[in-house]
Specification:
715 residues; alpha+beta; five-stranded antiparallel beta sheet; five-stranded mixed beta sheet; 42 strands; 31% strand
């Protein structure tokens, strides 16, 4: 499957993504509209570039790893497509390349080695450790840059710029007060770099002598926004930014946009080396945003115009995962009717709280057509303000969509009076798992207490705090009559619960490691609590933990079958102010889809809301085989389908139709506590502190809880 190859390629190519820190972030100024390009995957036999690509007389050069993951030099004829990979005589990872009069120079470094232990390989076969050239690199892991300019080699590392001849002799050394980034040619005998220092950030320019600061360059490049890397084009300096590739005329200090990463179909955060030959021919080593394939791509002019698309705005709070921004990228590439613009609310004013920003954005009418809420947002006030549209109205009028396509736990917890204002993109659950044979009908609070008092061990951790949390998480519903808004916390059953909790030790000695499955297989411990469950591999661990016997969601103890805590990843909503609700609904559906949800690098981490996305995740992970040691949840994952698993007494779990069906039945058994119970749990927890301290009896505590909860229900 492609994703296995992608996983390997992305790990190797991750170091391509150079960073330029300290640049002032401003809106990029371009005096042209980016051209439209069509990308074609280039066959280079599985070669993965780990350096910039260079071009001379119709041939592309790069260093990296061949299909055997060995260091190699790629030579590629851009006219015929013929290529050759030549082994490199180095130990480690090639990082930099330069074309010299006598041949190729490159730098290599072994994994785990500091920059000082990197090696410069010269065309004449000489190998020099960088510590001999740049002593300040000793003990650092600083990025090294190298170019060929005016017949010399220039290396920058940390605060040094060193000029060498092609035999490795030092011609000049320049040391600066600051850190050097983004070394690049901008003519045959001129180069520049960015210097970050305590005195301010500037661009330095060399016209054949010592590089000096250039106020003109500093002002010009700062206006282009955050710059990740710079390369020499045919006649212009290329700037690879977060959003696009820009060509800069260094004589007139003007810029023009060449291409937009997203419109061309690339993930901007996974764009590596760029080779610009002309506006009609470019090569990019990058990750395709749709299929997540990291490869070398040939770019030629084509159609990618967004002029006729309907634009929508997606307002969201970024949490560092890039999930929403990644979905926006894919959405824009995969369809041609709508175009989504990212509106990251947290970036608007970092002195305000995120919810203050959100509240103000709604009140001023500046909120997006689609709203992506963080998981813990209090939604009720926005529903009361009629700020959100009813998603059921879109589902019911969409002939290609229905509620039956959704996993119940993604939407039923958020239903209010027959309407649905938010929908979880995916969920995780916290609950108790046990053998079906031991708990065919779940477990009540009374039954849990009876098990513990009989000498059996319901949970591995029977400390007071842990058992209190488990019993009150869902079980308080047993003492509430929601139909009549009454409660019964002065009952003998609840008073017995309080007395049982007080009898427990404040800490609990766990006599075995959590990886040990034997206590669960042998019924020495009856229930296992899982927190934030949502992946197939965690389900495979349950298979091993219970020795291959049928297991079920027992849930937190309650009179009816036990209830489960739901934790959404994000909550999707459509603004009631939007006049582009059809487009907004299309984006919400895309956010739910397997194309958006499936992460081939990290696997499924949550239960997708859309059942088809669940199947897509299963297909992506079906190649994996989890081998569990006997009586343990320790496992080794086998990726290669041809790799033999050692014979032994362990358990092998793999996703197939049967396991997927079992998984679906498992998550279909999720039952969700109501919001009322959550508030009641808060009241009970507050009163238990005084009870444990001996300030009140169990009966008195129960009466206080009764009065407070009844007052809450009346309100």
């Amino acid at each position: 499957m492609k994703w296995v190859r992608n996983l390997i390629c992305l790990v190797i190519s991750s170091a391509l993504f150079l960073g330029c820190v300290g640049c002032e972030e401003k809106e990029t100024i371009n005096d042209t509209t980016p051209m439209s390009y069509v990308k074609t995957e280039v066959d280079v036999g599985g070669f993965v570039a780990t350096s910039k690509m260079l071009y001379e007389n119709g041939t592309m050069y790069a260093v990296g790893f061949d299909s055997n993951e060995s260091p190699a030099l790629l030579t590629y004829n851009v006219d015929t497509g013929a290529y050759e990979t030549t082994p490199l005589d180095c130990d480690g990872r090639p990082e930099e390349i330069a074309l010299c009069d006598g041949g190729i120079a490159y730098i290599s470094r072994r994994d785990g080695d500091s920059s000082a232990l990197a090696t410069l390989h010269l065309p004449n076969g000489t190998a020099i450790q960088l510590a001999e050239l740049i002593p300040s690199l000793v003990g650092t892991w600083y990025d090294i840059s190298m170019i060929s300019c005016g017949g010399s080699l220039f290396l920058t590392g940390k605060s040094d710029c060193v000029e060498l001849d092609t035999s490795g002799n030092i011609i000049e050394r320049y040391t600066y007060d600051g850190q050097i980034f983004s070394l690049a040619n901008y003519s045959d005998d001129e180069f520049c770099f960015f210097l970050e220092s305590s005195a301010g950030n500037k661009y330095y320019v060399s016209d054949g002598g010592k590089p000096e600061p250039s106020d003109e360059f500093t002002t010009f490049f700062t206006s282009l926004g955050i710059i990740r890397a710079m390369y020499l084009g045919t006649d212009e300096l290329l700037v690879r930014g977060d959003e696009r590739l820009t060509a800069c005329d260094m004589e007139t200090l003007t810029s023009r946009a060449i291409l937009d990463w997203v419109l061309t179909g690339f993930d901007p955060m996974r764009v590596g080396s760029v080779l610009y030959i002309s506006d009609e021919l470019l090569f990019v080593f990058a990750s395709d945003v749709i299929n997540n394939i990291s490869s070398l791509w040939r770019l030629t002019p084509g159609e990618a115009d967004t002029g006729d698309r309907i634009e929508i705005k997606v307002s969201y709070f970024e949490d560092g995962s890039n999930d929403t921004s990644d979905a926006i990228l894919k959405f824009n590439v995969m369809q041609d009717k709508y175009f989504a613009v990212a509106d990251e609310l947290g970036a608007k004013n970092r002195e305000d709280s995120l919810l203050d920003i959100f509240d103000r954005t709604i009140l001023t009418g500046e909120i997006g057509d689609v709203i992506v809420f963080p998981r813990d947002t209090e939604i009720d006030k926005y529903i009361e303000q009629k700020a959100l549209a009813d998603l059921y109205s879109f589902m019911d009028s969409d002939e290609n969509f229905s509620r039956e396509l959704l996993v119940d736990s993604s939407y039923l917890p958020y239903e209010q009076d027959g309407s649905l204002y938010v929908l979880a993109r995916a969920v995780q659950i916290s609950t108790l798992i046990g053998k079906t044979a031991n708990f065919p009908d779940g477990v009540t609070i009374d039954a849990f207490i009876e098990l513990a008092e009989s000498g059996k061990m319901p949970l591995a951790n029977m400390s007071r705090d842990n058992v209190e949390r488990v019993l009150l998480l869902a079980g308080v519903g047993d003492f509430i009559d929601t139909a009549n808004n009454t409660c019964d916390f002065v009952s003998d059953e609840f008073i017995s619960l309080l007395e049982f909790l007080k009898s427990l030790d404040t800490t609990s000695e766990v006599l075995y490691d959590d990886d040990d499955a034997a206590p669960y297989i042998n019924d020495e411990v009856l229930l296992y609590e899982t927190n934030d469950f949502g992946s197939f591999y965690e389900y495979a661990m349950f298979c091993a933990r219970f020795g291959g016997e049928d297991f079920t969601i027992v849930g937190y103890p309650a009179n009816e079958k036990g209830l489960t805590e739901i934790r959404p990843s994000y909550l999707l909503a459509i603004s009631a102010q939007s006049d582009k609700t059809d487009a907004a609904w299309d984006f919400v559906k895309f956010m739910l889809s397997g194309t958006s949800v499936v992460d081939v690098d990290r696997g499924m981490r949550e239960i997708p809301a859309l059942k088809s996305a669940l199947y897509d995740c299963a297909e992506a992970e079906s190649i994996l085989r989890w081998y569990f040691a006997p009586n343990s949840t320790n496992y080794h994952v086998y990726i290669d389908p041809n790799e033999e698993i050692p014979e032994g007494r362990g358990m092998v779990v793999q996703i197939d139709d049967e396991l997927l069906a079992d998984y679906e039945r498992f998550i279909a058994d999720i039952r969700i506590p109501s919001a009322t119970e959550a508030k009641v749990r808060e009241i009970i927890s507050e009163e238990l502190d005084a009870y444990y301290a001996g300030a009140k009896s169990a009966a008195d505590t129960a009466e206080v809880i009764q009065n407070r909860v009844q007052l809450y229900l009346n309100e």
